[in-house]
Amino acid sequence: MSGNPEPLSPRAKLAVTAGKAAAAVSRAAGKGSGSVIGGRVALKLDPDLLARLAGHLDVVLVSATNGKTTTTRLIAEALRASGPVVSNALGANMPAGITSALAGGSDSRYGVIEVDEKYLAGVARDVTPKAIALLNLSRDQLDRAAETRMLAEHWREGLSGTEAVVIANADDPLVAWAASSCPTVVWVAAGQEWKDDAWSCPSCGGVLQRPGDDWYCGDCGFRRPPPTWALHGDYVLSPDGVAWPIQLQLPGRANKANAAMSAAVGAVFGVPPKIALERMYSVQAVAGRYDVVTYLDRQLRLLLAKNPAGWLETFSLIDGPPAPVLLSVNARGADGTDTSWLWDVDYTRLAGHPIFVLGDRRLDLAVRLEVAGLEFRVCDDLDQAVRAAPPGRVEVIANYTAFQDLRRRIGN
Amino acid sequence: MNETSLRLVWIYPDLLSTYGDQGNALVVERRARQRRIPVTRIDVRSDQPIPTSGDIYLIGGGEDRPQRLAAERLRRDGGLNRAVANGAIVFSVCAGYQILGTEFINDLGRPEPGLGILDVKSVRNDGDRHVGDVLADMDERLGLPPLTGFENHQGNTLIGPSARPLARVRIGNGNGTGDGTEGAYCDTVFGTYMHGPVMARNPLLADMLLKLALDVHALPRVDEQWYEALRAERIAHATQAAAARS
Ligand SMILES: [Zn+2]
Questions:
Q1: In this predicted complex, what is the ipTM?
Q2: Reported CATH class of domain A47-280
Q3: Is A379 among the annotated ligand-binding positions?
């Protein structure tokens, strides 16, 4: 499926070079990896650069509210079985970051690209992907992001004529609605723990009925598409009915779902499920997530949870009581500045755990936990919280910028 | 209060529970239980009838399309109007607040009739969306400390002659009509644009509803430590941010 690399035009070459220079300057100035700033400079010099950089690649796009960085990584590992892969592995998922990542992929066969939900339709237009993986949609950063169903609508319109094979989660009604306008869809029963953004039929607004794993609208007949792949406990069932064991170092049901989706994507490119899944085992941590780091004589497991659906999946993977749990929440720009979503998370699930609370918005968390009837301790900083926790493993759950703060503090 | 247990009705979690406002139900329930007041929480999905025997009804914010669907279903059901006619207490937020009024602009850009149980009418604000922390002084008749919350809406709400403003903004937009008002109330029906959720930031509002429901003037004290710490922090934050802007 891979074409011959097409030579870049002089203008595109200049844009790539200028972008790399800008990235180097940004890195030297201590402003992070530089990948976004480099891409921004390059895109300004050549707006068609993204399309040109992707020209010789078989591109896979991955989008979702949760799990897109991890799934991008799993798909990249699977596809490396059949050729070199370029990927925006660090989660810079808007056009500038994607451009910058692809600029390093002149010798690659595959481009596996995580895309921010809002940019998916546009990027899909630019890079002519061979496959698009759609995992889930749920509420996230409601003070600035688009409404959840509007995102589904945006995907539906933007992808309706795509030539890509769309690999979509049949268990998420919003994803099913978005993908059902695409000509070629591989439906995967990947599950959905969080259901509170999909009680209304995305098509007609009727109330969805959800008997067992099924769902359907009694008003218009829109229903769960029959899946050809399915996550079943610790196995993924492929279309030929074979159950493949999923063995991951990454914890939790959500990552098994990500692996099932990734195996289905691998199959589109001829990678057998056995090989794809074996390769996924090598993934240990993704951009610091799931990493276990020794700090002040405790083993901190770093878990990122950015929204109610993410917190719900995270609660289901942590060690049971009396494992101590450290919660950190900020509400800076990248997190969304409203903390009301904390009240959509069922914190009673943490009953029995010693709980330590920190972050810019620890008082919002404190009131939330008080109303949930839980015991907790509010801490000024990470060191105080870790010292207060008993020795051994500590489950650390943080939202976006709180997670970055933690990594910086512990030097991870 | 009804027989032996206070009936707390949470309206349409499938449509109007997108911005954390179910926290209001959690706070009311918690503060009732802390006073040993038995509570039954009743969640009513939009394909179920609204019970008319509730004591306190709570409605939250939602996105534009679910707001229209909720208004259609509540009008058709009629149960909330009957409950209010019987003296029930209603506390509504954002999209729910607009629905209680006489009219709002729906997701299709057209005027949508509300339930008409609060004398307010909402139009769409053509400027920027109102997003951010709010600080306001409560209507003096309510005898409550300042209102703190987070607003996130595109509506401007005008208050008619039979309702009063819930509060007057010091910082933020509130009703967005330029007259400095925030929210509205009349007898036992209340509306606000404040998320946060508003009861977590202003627990005495939850107590006010409980007192109305129980027909008492005072309630036993509960531990306010974390609520008060959060209030102080959010009020200081809003004040500093406003000073930095001006
Ligand atoms: Zn329908």
A1: 0.97
A2: alpha beta
A3: no
